[in-house]
Design brief:
- The protein is of the alpha+beta class and 131 residues long.
- The chain has one domain.
- 18% of the residues lie in helices and 42% in strands.
- It has two helices and nine strands; from the N terminus they run αββαβββββββ.
- The strands form two sheets. A five-stranded antiparallel β-sheet has the order 2-9-8-7-6, with no helix packed on it. It has a four-stranded antiparallel β-sheet with strand order 1-3-4-5, with no helix packed on it.
- The termini are far apart.
- Keywords: Signal.
- This is DUF2147 domain-containing protein.
C-alpha cells in the first residue's frame, strides 16, 4: 500500500524536474537578439513592388548582421552596435548609368520584435521582424 502512495509522488517529482530543465521563454529582442528574424516589408512611399513581394530576413550575429529584402540576391550588411540597441545595414550598388544606388536598413528592438525601416532612392518601407 505504501508503494501505491509513493508512486504518484515520484511521478510528480519527475515532472517537476522536467519542467525545471525546460528552456525558458525567449527573452526580448534587446537582451536576446542573435538569430534569424523574418517579416514582410510594407510600403510607406514610392515603388517597393520587388521588396514587398516576399518575406525578408534579418540575421543577427555577434559580429555581423545581414538584412535581405524579399529574400533577394542583394544582402545589406552591417555590424551590431554594442548593446544591440540599434542596427544599421547597407549595400551600395552601381546602376548601369554609373550612378550610385544606396540601400539602407535601420532597426531597433521593440519588445519581442525588431522594427525597422528600409530605404532606397525609389522605395521606403517599414517592417516588424519576429522569430
Amino acid at each position: 500500500m505504501i508503494a501505491c502512495l509513493a508512486r504518484p509522488a515520484v511521478v510528480a517529482l519527475g515532472l517537476a524536474g522536467i519542467l525545471a530543465l525546460a528552456r525558458p521563454a525567449a527573452a526580448d529582442a534587446l537582451h536576446d537578439p542573435k538569430g534569424l528574424w523574418t517579416g514582410q516589408l510594407v510600403t510607406d512611399r514610392g515603388n517597393c513592388t520587388s521588396e514587398t513581394r516576399d518575406t525578408s530576413t534579418f540575421q543577427v550575429g555577434s559580429k555581423t548582421l545581414t538584412f535581405t529584402p524579399a529574400d533577394g540576391s542583394v544582402p545589406l550588411r552591417g555590424q551590431p552596435e554594442k548593446g544591440y540597441a540599434h542596427y544599421h545595414a547597407e549595400a551600395l550598388l552601381q546602376q548601369p548609368s554609373g550612378a550610385a544606388y544606396p540601400m539602407v536598413f535601420e532597426a531597433h528592438p521593440e519588445g519581442k520584435t525588431i522594427v525597422g525601416t528600409y530605404g532606397t532612392p525609389r522605395c521606403r518601407a517599414h517592417i516588424v521582424l519576429s522569430r
